[in-house]
Design a protein that fits this description.
By secondary structure, this protein is α+β, with helices and mostly antiparallel strands. The protein has 8 helices and 40 strands. The strands form 9 sheets. Strands 1, 2, 3, 4, 5, 10, 11, 12, 13, 14 and 15 form an 11-stranded antiparallel beta sheet that branches. Strands 16-18-23-20-21 form a 5-stranded mixed beta sheet, with no helix packed on it. The longest helix is centred in the N-terminal third of the chain and has 29 residues. 38% of the residues are buried.
């Protein structure tokens, strides 16, 4: 309801007329306030109306899906949304997407939506909170200034609330989201960022946006130049881009496991824009991105940063659609009172909704209304900016593919070499062998893009070459379902003829490394050997193994490591006092740990691995000291040389006339046994012994004594 404007002219010749006129004035004033109240209340949207509007909109956009209110989950944002009169309603729809509906008809009704993502918890995502806060501020402004909806928004509300059958949401043109990754700033992405007492610094949203665009193009293969700058709190950060190579085959659409290549690219992007690192937030300027891409990553000099300030909405959206129509992602940014955020625009639906990848591991990716929610609040959006025309130079891109490539990691991605925009080359003949150090028992192949012309094909084999069993043959444009290849190696071969080329393919692969050891083993011998169970292979992912060592009569137990190679920090061997439960030591990495003693009759050794990188594992043996008859009379022996090569000499102590010399190898197997009587020096040939650590024992009626020696 609109408000009428009244003008009052008062003439007061008599007192009673003054009183009656004042009464009339206050009555009219009350009517005006009521009209204001009715107008404001009539524009508010309750939760039921918001749900109805959301259901109808999603049914129009995704008619193939069955959407029910029962799946709606209203997301809490009490810090910024008025619980009594909400400015917005944010609904997650199970795991099938989300929709954000305005809480007031002064605004357009649908603010954002998605059929594949979900809204993150605002409490733990301040950047998303800042973006939503902008919408809240606009609706507050509309309410405080009694602004009513536009003709466009009224038509949309009328349709969504079933007041009219006219559908105003018909898209004249759309570009589906085309970015090839859903990366983030923390976890496996930040593993090469600098650290402080609180842990790794975050990658930073600007760097994550850059890294995703670079992975999208899979360009460059090598960087250019070098750069050093000082990061407060972390010292100098330096990258020699010209000496760096980027292997996109060892990257994937998401880093579910630590992937060095992704972490390296993310860190390099951060350094290129002088990232201000922080444990709880890292920041940089988006207007530095175009120069960084050109100077350090060899991108075309057409890349340019533009501020939206002073640019009309129509012109701005035309610029965006121009890039997106050519499948060029746009690095976008917005800032407000609570801070700023950079992300990637990679699609649009109609003239007003643009698809954003926020760089939060896929969270909140969806279509967002880009204009002001009402033209009366247009100044709210002037803080936006974007980097346009980001693409590699045509003189050096795309690379194409040729020959055979061996991939030595369990996870990665493979494409035909044409990039996301061009067709693959004629007469291509390319192959890839997935053969990681860690032996996998099967692989999952997930296709992300597929468009191979007739008579061209991609063949996947269960084995090391094209003589192996065929697991799948692919051509055409139908996206295949996930393929499971039951083999320790996978060979892929792509061939094309001289005509009818097409877009090509992109796939992600993930190998499964079987668990090497599992459960609990109990070891009760006085000395014994154990290992991770992987043999000559790398140990398995997600292993959790425990050895409870309980020799009879032990007063202390010492563990000696013979081999050691486990992933740094994330995988570990832990030594525990079996009596009290205290951790005595924890080891990871590739350096051979020193011997560790537990002064107890029980020792527990725990081996735990994560889901990513693996190593050769470990081998160890233990020895127990008992209080029963070990060396009660202080018997001794001297062994030399140590390390030994050809012979080992043993000199029993003066108080030992006779006994037995025994030698055990690292597996706990007895390999030498010799009885002696009244011998001052015993010479043992050891040239045939394998290199390694051994245990030699002198056993007698007076007691026993043990020592370690090494064969080189």
């Amino acid at each position: 309801m609109g408000l009428q404007h009244y003008s009052f002219i008062f003439v007061f010749p008599k007192t009673n007329q003054i009183i009656m006129t004042l009464r009339f004035f206050f009555v009219l004033l009350s009517i005006v306030f009521v009209l204001f109240s009715i107008s404001a209340k009539a524009q508010s949207v309750n939760q039921t109306q918001a749900e109805d509007a959301a259901i109808k909109f999603l049914q129009v956009k995704y008619p193939q899906k069955s959407i029910s209110k029962a799946n709606f989950q209203l997301q809490n944002a009490s810090d910024i949304i008025d619980a009594q009169n909400p400015q917005l309603y944010m609904f997650n729809i199970g795991t099938e997407g989300f929709v954000i509906i305005a809480g007031d008809k002064s605004s357009i009704p649908v603010i954002a939506y998605s059929d594949h993502s979900s809204i993150p918890d605002i409490e733990f995502n301040p950047n998303f909170e800042n973006w939503i806060q902008n919408y809240v501020n606009q609706i507050d402004y509309f309410r405080n200034n009694n602004i009513i909806g536009t003709t466009k928004s009224k038509a949309e509300w009328a349709f969504l609330l079933n007041d009219t059958g006219n559908n105003p949401f018909v898209s004249t043109k759309a570009v589906d989201p085309f970015l090839r990754s859903t990366w983030g700033q923390s976890g496996n992405y930040q593993l090469l960022c600098p650290t402080d007492a609180q842990g790794y610094a975050l990658v930073g949203c600007v760097a994550t946006a850059m890294a995703q665009v670079i992975y999208y193009y899979r360009f460059p293969a090598t960087g250019n130049g070098s750069h050093t700058y000082y990061a407060p709190g972390y010292g100098n950060q330096s990258v020699n881009f010209g000496a760096s190579t980027y292997d996109y085959n060892l990257m994937a659409d998401e880093a579910n496991v630590p992937m060095f290549e992704i972490a390296e690219l993310s860190y390099h992007c951060a350094v290129s824009v002088d990232m201000y690192f922080g444990y709880d937030g890292s920041g940089a300027n988006t207007y530095d991105v175009d120069d960084a891409l050109e100077d350090y990553f060899r991108y075309d000099t057409d890349a340019n940063y533009q501020s939206k300030f002073g640019v009309s909405n129509t012109t701005w959206k035309t610029w965006l659609r121009s890039d997106l129509d050519n499948f060029h992602p746009v690095i976008y940014s917005g800032s407000g009172s609570g801070g700023g955020h950079a992300f990637v625009a990679d699609g649009y639906d109609g003239t007003d909704y643009f698809h954003f990848d926020w760089g939060w591991d896929g969270y909140a990716n969806g279509y967002f209304y880009l204009d002001a929610l009402n033209p009366a609040g247009s100044d709210f959006n002037d803080w936006q900016g974007a980097v346009f025309e980001v693409y590699p130079p045509s003189t050096s891109y795309p690379y194409g593919c040729s020959g055979n490539t061996t991939l030595e990691f369990t996870h990665g991605s493979i494409e035909d070499g044409s990039g996301p925009m061009a067709d693959y080359a004629s007469n291509s003949s390319c192959s890839w062998l997935i053969s990681p150090d860690a032996q996998c028992d099967y692989y999952s192949i997930n296709f992300q893009e597929m468009n191979i012309a007739t008579d061209d094909q991609l063949v996947i084999y269960e084995g090391p070459n094209n003589g192996s069993t065929v697991a799948g043959t692919y051509t055409g444009s139908t996206l295949p379902s996930t393929l499971t290849v039951n083999s320790s190696e996978v060979f892929l071969e792509f061939t094309s003829n001289s005509s009818n080329n097409s877009d090509g393919f992109l796939l992600n692969y993930a190998g499964h490394v079987p668990t090497s050891c599992q459960g609990i083993q109990v070891l009760t011998a006085q000395t014994d050997t154990f290992d991770d169970g992987s043999g000559t292979n790398h140990y398995g992912n997600n292993s959790f193994c425990r050895w409870n060592i309980t020799p009879a009569g032990a007063t202390s137990i010492t563990i000696h490591f013979l081999e050691f190679d486990v992933e740094e920090t994330l995988d570990y061997v832990r030594i525990i006092d079996g009596s009290g439960g205290a951790t005595i030591a924890e080891y990871s990495g590739s350096s051979l740990p020193s011997s560790t003693t537990v002064n107890s009759d029980k020792m527990t050794v725990m081996f735990k691995t994560n889901a990513s990188y693996t190593g050769q594992g470990f081998k160890a043996f233990y020895t127990a000291t008992t209080g029963i008859n070990d060396n009660p009379e202080g018997i001794s022996m001297r062994i030399f040389p140590n390390p030994a090569t050809d012979i080992l000499k043993i000199a029993p102590g003066n108080n030992v006339e006779e006994g037995v010399i025994v030698i055990y190898d690292y597996s706990g197997r007895e390999i030498y046994n010799y009885s002696f009587s009244n011998e001052d020096l015993i010479i043992i040939p050891v040239a045939e012994f394998s290199a390694g650590i051994y245990q030699v024992g002198l056993l007698s009626e007076k007691g026993n004594v043990w020592q370690k020696f090494m064969i080189e």
